[in-house]
Amino acid sequence: MAGATRSDLVVGETTETNAVAIVAIALATVMFALSLAALFELLSISGRLAGVAVPTLLGLILSALGVTVIAFGVGSSLGYVETQPSPSAGFVAAAVFSGLWFTVGGLIASQTLGLGGLTWLPVAALVGGGAFAVTALSREDIGSTLPAGAFCLLTGLVFVTGTIGPTWVWELDFEQQASFTAEFVIPTATLFAALLAGWAAAKAYGGFGARGRHMGAYLLIYLNASSIVGVLFVLVGFTAVKGIPGLVDGARFPFSIPFVMNGVSLFNEFQGVLPAIVGTIWLVVGAVLFAVPLGVGAAIFLTEYAERGRLTQAVEVATNGLWSTPSIVFGLFGFAFLVPRFGGNKSLLSGMLTLGFMLLPLVLITSREAILAVPDEYRDASAALGVSKWQTIRSVVLPAALPGVVTGVILGVGRIAGETAPILLTMTGGTFVPGSQTVDVIGGFEFTGSPPFVANPELLEATTALPFQLYALITAGVGLGDNVSNPEQFQWATALVLLLVVLSFYAIGIGARYYFRRRLQS
Amino acid sequence: MSETTEETKRTGIESDQSVETTSGETDEQVREEWREYAFDGQTKFAVEDLDVYYGDDHALNGVSIEIPENSVTALIGPSGCGKSTFLRCLNRMNDRIRSAEVDGSVRIGGQEIYQEGVNLVELRKRVGMVFQSPNPFPKSIRENVSYGPEKHGDLQTGLLARLLDRSDEAEREQLVERCLRDAALWDEVEDRLDDNALGLSGGQQQRLCIARCLSVDPEVILMDEPASALDPIATSKIEDLIEELSEEYTVVIVTHNMQQAARISDQTAVFLTGGELVEYGDTDQVFENPNSERVEDYITGKFG
C-alpha cells in the first residue's frame, strides 16, 4: 500500500477550496440546465443573454469551468489541496474519456486541419490513446480532472472564438441532405462538457477517492433524475400554456366553460369538444369493464390453478406478444372482425372491445405478478384453517394483490386512452360533432319486444374521441374551416383536455391503489 | 386399525427397562426398544411406516410413532432431517406440495387420514397448524381471528346476514375474546381489535396466529418452530402458552432449540439425517439417558 494515502476519519470543515468546488458544481448544473433549455429551444442560440451573445456566454463559462477543474487536479497532485485520491481513475472513466477525445481528435484533424482520406484516423487514435493513458495511468486527481477540464476548456474556446457561431453549419457530404446545425451542436457540446466538468468538480469536492467517486455518481444521478422531471414539467407546462387560451375562451366562471360543454355547430358562439370528451371516457370505461374481469380471472387461473407447463408457457408467450402488437394491427382486427358483426358501421362498442383487447395482456401480466407476489404463508395459513382454495383466493389473495392489479390497470389506461389508430378504424365518425350528438350510453338502454330484450343503439353508433379529434385537426387538417374561428387555439385546447382526461384517470387509479394499500396496512 | 389402538392401551412397564439400557447399541436395536415405549393416556396419532418422497429425495424413511392425547410432543433433530415434513403429514399440508408423495398410514383417533374420501376441511379444522414465521393475514386483528369460522359458515357476519337480521355479531365478539384470551393476547390488544394485525410485534403476531388456530376449535395444534423468529421474552410467553394449551389440546411441536424441547415437552422424538426417527420416549429419559449413541452425540452437541 505504498503511496496510498489514508483517508481522514473526520473531514475538516468547509475551506476555500471546497467553496470553489461547490461553485464549480453549481456552474456545471446551471450549464446543464441552460443546454437543455437551448436544446428545447427555450433559449435562442442567436439571442443575447445579459448583453452577451449566447454562444460567447456559454463559451466563457465553460472555459472558466474547465480552468477551475484543471486547477483542482493540478493543485491536488502538487499537494496544495488536501485530498485522498486513488492510484487511478479507473478503466471505465478511461474508456469514456478516450472515446470522447478520439472523436474530438478525429473532428479536428478532418474538419479543422482538413486532412483528407483516412489520415484523420491516426490522429484520432493518438489523441484518444493519449486521453486513455492520462486517465488510466496517472493518479486519480489528474486522471479524472485533466481530460474533463481540457474538453470543457476546448469547447469553451471554440465558442468564444466564434469557430462555432450561431450560423455555423456542417454539411455532411451524403447524398441525402444532412447537416449539423449550431442549434443542435452548441447545446449538445455544452451538455457533455457541463456533465463532465460537473462530475470532475464533484469528485474534487469529495476529495477524490471513495468519497469523491460517491459524490461524482451522486451528481450524475441527481442531474439525470431532475432532467426527467424537468422534461415532464416542460411538456405539461408547454401544453397548458398553449391550450389554456382556447380552453377558457368565452368561459364565464364559475360554471360555464363552453369548450368542454359544447359541441360544434353553426349556432354556437363558442365551439367545444364535449362529444369527444364523453366518447373518450366511455371508451376507457368500456375497455376496463371488458379487460379487467377477463385479465384478472386468467391471472388467477394461471397462478393458482394451472400446473406450470406447456399451457402456461404458451399463454405467457401469447400475452407478451399481444402486448407488443402494434396498435394499428388491433385496429385492423377490429375493423375486419368486429365492425361487420356490430351492424357494419363503426361503433362505440367495437372501439371499446378493440381497446379492451389491447388492455387485456397488460392487466393479465401485472395481475399475475401481483398474485405471485402474495406470500405463500397467507395461502398456507388459510389452508391450515381448512378454508377452501377459492375462498382463500377471494378473501386473502385477491385483496392482497389488488394494489398491484390497479397499478396494471392505471398503466394500461394510460396507453389506451391516448390511442388513435385503433379507434380511427373502429369507432370514429365525424370530426366536428354537434353537442346534441354526444353519446349517452346510460340513457341509450331500451327494452325491446324480442330477445335479448335489451338494446342500446348508442353503443352501435359511431362517435368521436379526443385523440382522434386531435389527429384529424392537426395532422390530417380536417375541418379547418368556417366552424372554428381559431384552429390553432382549438387544437392546443383539445390536446390540453386530452392530457387532463388521461391525468384524471391516473388520479382515480392512484387514489384507488392508495385506498386498497391502506386497507392492507392499517 | 384396531390393533394399534389396543396396543397403546398398555401402560408403561417396559419403558423402565429401556431407561437402563446402555448406549452403544445399533439404531435397529434402539428402535426395537422404543417401539415398546408406552405412555399413560389415549393415543391421538398412530403413525405407521410413513415414507415421504419429494421427487427422488427420500425425506421420511419408515417412521412409526404414537403420540398421546393432551400432551406436548417435541420433534427435534438437525436441519433437513424431516421433522417439518413429518409435522405437515399430520394434517396433510404436504398435499399442497406438488412433488410430495406420501406412503404409509396416519391415524387420528383411529381414523385413517391417508385414504380416499377424507374431508380435508374437517381434518384441518381438527388439526390446526402454527407456522415458523408469524403469518397473520393483512386484515384487522378481529378479522384474523374470526376468519376461519366465517369461511366455514359458522358465523354469519356479512352484509346479507345483517340485512336479514341474522348477523352473529355478538357470537363473533365472544369468539374473538375467548380465542385471544386463550392465546394470552387479549389484554394487549383489547382496545385495538380493528387495527391491522401486521402492526403487532413478532411475538404478538405469533400469539395471534395461535388464537386464529384456536378459533376453529381444533383437537390438535401442530407447531413448526413457532418461536424461532422471536426474542427470548416473546419465546418464553409462547412456551408458557404451549404448556397451558396442552391441558386441552394435543400439541406437537418442531423445535431446533433443545432446551426448549426439554422445558416444555412431555415426550421427545429425535429425527436424524436421512429422515429416520431414531429415538422416541419421555423427554427426561431422551435427554438424560438416550439409548442411541447418535442421539447422545446430537444432544451433547458433537454432531448435527
3D structure, described in words:
The complex is a heterodimer of chains A (522) and B (304). The two termini of chain A are 55 Å apart. Chain A is 67% helix and 3% strand. In chain A, helix 2 (54-78) runs parallel beside helix 6 (182-205), helix 3 packs parallel to helix 5 and helix 5 (140-160) runs antiparallel to helix 6 (182-205). In chain A, strands 1-2 form a two-stranded antiparallel ribbon. Chain A has a two-stranded antiparallel sheet with strand order 3-4. Chain A has a two-stranded antiparallel sheet with strand order 5-6. Chain A is mainly α and 522 residues long. In chain A, strand 3 (169-172) and strand 4 (178-181) form a beta hairpin. Chain A has two domains: 16-89 and 138-223; 274-521, MetI-like fold, CATH 1.10.3720. The model of chain A is unreliable at 1-6 (pLDDT under 50). Chain A is built from 17 helices and six strands. Chain B is an alpha/beta fold and 304 residues long. Chain B has one domain (2-136, 200-299): Rossmann fold, CATH 3.40.50. Chain B contains 14 helices and ten strands. Chain B is globular, with a radius of gyration of 20 Å. Chain B starts with a helix and ends in a 5-residue tail after the last helix. The model of chain B is unreliable at 1-23 (pLDDT under 50). Classes of the chains: A mainly alpha (522), B alpha/beta (304). At the A-B interface, helix 13 and helix 14 of A face helix 5, helix 6 and helix 10 of B.
Keywords:
heterodimer; A: 522 residues; mainly alpha; MetI-like fold; two-stranded antiparallel ribbon; B: 304 residues; alpha/beta; Rossmann fold; 6-stranded mixed β-sheet; 4-stranded antiparallel β-sheet; 14 helices; 10 strands
Main sheet makeup of chain A:
2 strands, antiparallel
- Which residues of chain A sit in consecutive blocks of at least 5 with pLDDT less than 50? 1-6
- Segments of chain B where pLDDT lies below 50 for 5+ residues? 1-23
Largest sheet of chain B: 6 strands, mixed
Strand order, biggest sheet of chain B? 6-7-8-3-9-10
Strand adjacency order, main sheet of chain A = 1-2
Query: Approximately how much beta-strand content do the residues of chain B carry?
Result: 15-25%
**DSSP strand count of chain A:** 6
Helical amount of chain A: 55-70%
How many independent structural domains of chain A?
2
Task: Name the CATH homologous superfamily of the largest domain in chain A.
Answer: MetI-like
Query: What is the name of the CATH architecture of the largest domain in chain A?
Result: Orthogonal Bundle
Give the number of helices of chain B.
Answer: 14
Query: If helices are DSSP runs of H or I spanning 4 or more residues, what is the number of helices of chain A?
Result: 17
Number of separate domains of chain B: 1
Kindly provide the radius of gyration of chain A, computed on alpha-carbon positions and rounded to a whole number of angstroms.
Answer: 31 Å
Distance between the termini of chain A: 55 Å
**Form type of chain A:** globular
Q: How many β-strands of chain B, per DSSP? A: 10
CATH class of the largest domain in chain A: Mainly Alpha
Average predicted confidence as pLDDT of chain B: 82
